[in-house]
Amino acid sequence: MAIHSIPSVQMVLFLALSCTSITHRVASFTFSRDISSLATRKVARYAVTKEAVEIWRQKAGFGSVTKVRDDSDDNDDDATATSNDKVSSSTTLIDAATAAADIANNDDHQNKAAVQNNSYNSSSEQEEEEERYMPPWSLATQRTPSSKAFARFRQHVNPLSRRFQMPTDLPDNWPYSDFTNVNLPLYLDIGCGKGGFLLELVGRRHGNDYKDGTDSYMNNTRSFTDTTDEWLPSTMNYLGLEIRPGVSQYAQNRVEKRGLSGKLSFVGCNANVDLDRLLSLYTESADEQVDAFNNELKFVSIQFPDPHFKKAHTKRRVVTPALVTTLAKFMKQGGVVFLQSDIKEALEAMREKFVEDDGLVYFDEHNDDDDDAGETIEEEYGMANPLGIPTEREVSVLNQDLPVYRTLFLRNDVSYPSKSSLLAKNL
Questions:
Q1: How is 269-315 classified by DSSP, letter by letter?
Q2: Count of CB atoms within 10 A of residue 248's CB?
Q3: For residue 341, which of 23, 70, 207, 409 sits 20 to 30 Å off, Cα-Cα?
Q4: pTM check: above 0.70
Q5: Residues acting as catalytic residues
Q6: In sequence order, which ranges of 47-89 are alpha helices (DSSP H)?
Q7: pLDDT tens-digit profile of 388-409?
């Protein structure tokens, strides 16, 4: 009995192989179940898209759901042979499930962001669509007069861009909305900037000399003598044009503060687009019973305009042949156009438009008889400032002992439109 109770070697080997096969099958089934549970939780949690599931299946080596089910029905030998492959590919399976979950998670966030962006973009597109058909000077600004950034602006704009080629919006009753008495001659400052020059000019001439010790420009102009009476009527209306939207708004906000409402106004516009319309409205607004011929364009100043140095940008300069023609159209004999710049080439470019084409027909250049005018700067374009009151830019240039180049044109007695001008246009 003792001998028969001892198991044979074959029996031991058989039992060992059977246990090993059972262990592998149990381990493979348990591990596969855990992996499937992990993948299921990931898929359920992140709502994996169809594309992400397919990527996961391919990386896991399952191919399709039917194939996975068929593999579970293999015979014992196949299960024993493939169990090691399944165990060795477990890391790949985990990585694939994690990657699929990450893809789903990213897609979920992207979908939420897309919904938010679509909502935001729809409102933004609507605002942009509205702004597309509005002049830039009519758009609300985010600056307030009390903010520190209110007086800081960009230095350049492209006047040829589509938005700056739009006509500006004016009140229905302009110029009555801006001027108390429209039966007065008009002073026009093209490119007025923040309006410091006109505010000082009008304030001195009409008894509203503003006292503010913190205004450095006003403090610097106290030493300059007002000589405007030699060139300007005793009573006038004053209009400043500025193309930069925020700058024109800033200038207009200063008018009421200085107590100059009804005498001085600033309009944001492109002078080469709106000048004819503005001057037509102003000259046609005169009360014929008072004086239908008194509200003429009397004096025009273009001071230190953007020089646009680049050759490709010269077409952006403010003085164009069309602008000269418009000034000639609304000016009567004796009207004045005053030009000045601290850049000689810029002044010559402006002057050139007044000595050719319509400028040559309707304007004559004024020769300054002041022998002392050219002592400190070049004799050419060395005339003194006829108004006496400098601009902010002019003060800065003079403080650096740099030259200022000036010239002045007078409207002659040739009526508009002249026969020579019409003939030249017909040719």
A1: S-HHHHHHHHHHHHHHT--HHHHTTSS-EEEEEEES-----SGGGGG
A2: 25
A3: 207
A4: no
A5: 306
A6: 50-60, 65-71, 76-88
A7: 999 999 999 999 999 999 999 9
